[in-house]
């Protein structure tokens, strides 16, 4: 079976980490060798940049934020994603470039054409084969996120920011309907996981 690249997207509190663990178990149960990773992060440099990007004490301009995201992504693609796929291993990533279209594009207002230029430069023709969007109302997501830890730099944004992010994600799902599966993440966890498994079963046929 050809190696595939799966990404999981969503606003804060959507339950990405829990669902990624579930997806990894489903894939491994089918005998698939999968590398689980995340963005920003996934490499030593990426994790250092993640710490900067999430530090609420940092005052970062939107352009600098976008460039830092793509710097981490360039290292991630070159050091983790492409080598794993070339070795026949599947890649499962907690966020990828769709997050830049949502957060830096929708949230910060950076022109999508500019993000597309960075995407082409950093990734070439690399795109996810399947993207699972865990969609959740912003208020519910932020309530969930607030229960788990102190808010990071992004989580301190106002609800209006996350409404724009959510809208941008849904627009990405509309534009790239062939690879996107939108999952209602406001449901009970067992229902969310059932919908994810159904989407994976269809993808793996």
Radius of gyration: 16 Å
Q: How much strand?
A: 5-15%
Please tell me what the overall shape is. globular
Distance between the termini: 11 Å
Helical stretch tally: 8
Question: What share of the residues lie within helices?
Answer: 55-70%
Number of strands: 5
Topology readout:
Layout: E1 5-9, H1 16-29, E2 34-38, H2 44-54, H3 62-86, E3 90-94, H4 97-107, H5 112-123, E4 130-135, H6 138-148, H7 159-175, E5 180-184, H8 189-204
Task: Characterise this structure.
By secondary structure, the protein is of the alpha/beta class. Helix content is 57%, strand content 13%. It is built from 8 helices and 5 strands; from the N terminus they run βαβααβααβααβα. It has helices at 16-29, 44-54, 62-86, 97-107, 112-123, 138-148, 159-175, 189-204; strands spanning 5-9, 34-38, 90-94, 130-135, 180-184. A 5-stranded parallel β-sheet has the order 2-3-1-4-5, sandwiched between helices. Helix 3 runs parallel beside helix 5 (112-123), helix 4 packs antiparallel against helix 5 (112-123) and helix 4 (97-107) crosses helix 7. It starts with a strand and ends with a helix.
List the defining traits of the structure above.
single chain; 205 residues; alpha/beta; five-stranded parallel beta sheet; 5 strands; globular
Compact description:
The protein is an alpha/beta fold.
């Amino acid at each position: 079976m050809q190696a595939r690249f799966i990404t999981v997207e969503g606003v804060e509190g959507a339950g990405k980490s829990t669902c990624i663990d579930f997806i990894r178990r489903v894939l491994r149960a089918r005998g698939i060798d999968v590398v689980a990773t995340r963005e920003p992060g996934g490499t030593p440099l990426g994790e250092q940049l993640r710490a900067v990007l999430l530090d609420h004490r940092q005052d970062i301009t939107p352009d600098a934020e976008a460039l830092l995201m793509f710097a981490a992504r360039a290292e991630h693609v070159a050091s983790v994603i492409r080598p794993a796929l070339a070795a026949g291993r599947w890649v499962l990533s907690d966020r990828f470039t769709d997050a830049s279209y949502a957060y830096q594009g929708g949230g910060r207002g950076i022109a999508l054409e500019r993000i597309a230029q960075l995407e082409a430069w950093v990734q070439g023709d690399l795109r996810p084969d399947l993207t699972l969007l865990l969609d959740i109302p912003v208020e519910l997501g932020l309530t969930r996120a607030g229960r788990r830890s102190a808010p990071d730099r992004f989580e301190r944004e106002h609800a209006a920011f996350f409404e724009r992010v959510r809208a941008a994600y849904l627009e990405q799902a509309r534009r790239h309907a062939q690879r996107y599966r939108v999952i209602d993440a406001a449901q009970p966890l067992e229902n969310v996981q059932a919908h994810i498994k159904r989407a994976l079963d269809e993808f793996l046929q």
